[in-house]
Design a protein that fits this description.
Blueprint: E1 5-10, E2 20-22, E3 25-27, H1 30-47, E4 57-66, E5 80-81, H2 88-99, E6 110-120, E7 124-131
Parallel strand pairs: 4-6
Antiparallel strand pairs: 1-7, 2-3, 4-7, 5-6
Length: 133
Amino acid sequence: MTDPITIVVPGIPVPWSRAGKSGKRHFTPQRQREHMDLIRAYSVAAMRARPIISGPVSVGCSFIYQFPKSWPDKRRINYTPKTSRSDLDNNIKIVTDSLIGIVFQDDAQIYFLTAEKYYAWEDFTEITVRGLP
């Protein structure tokens, strides 16, 4: 395996959502577009002039959400699993779609994928991509 590429995107993870419709025109919701642009910007910085990966890739995603304000301090244990919305597969989709053309050529190259959602002290998304040599 090649050296891993680690991308840390600050802010609340935004899930992929179905395209909106205005008359006959379909559009991507603005919140989703902005989050994809943010992932792309951090991906470009993390690549540091590395070439795009053309072979099989392994992707790991950690979606970290801030503890709800309503939780008492004794319940706030770092990395508590998050089992409420948003759906993990929608979080994964927005990440993999954002990395196309920057980290790898196509998301069909992904042969292994791990993902998790947790509560912690701050919101962020951590993405690790490894290519086979």
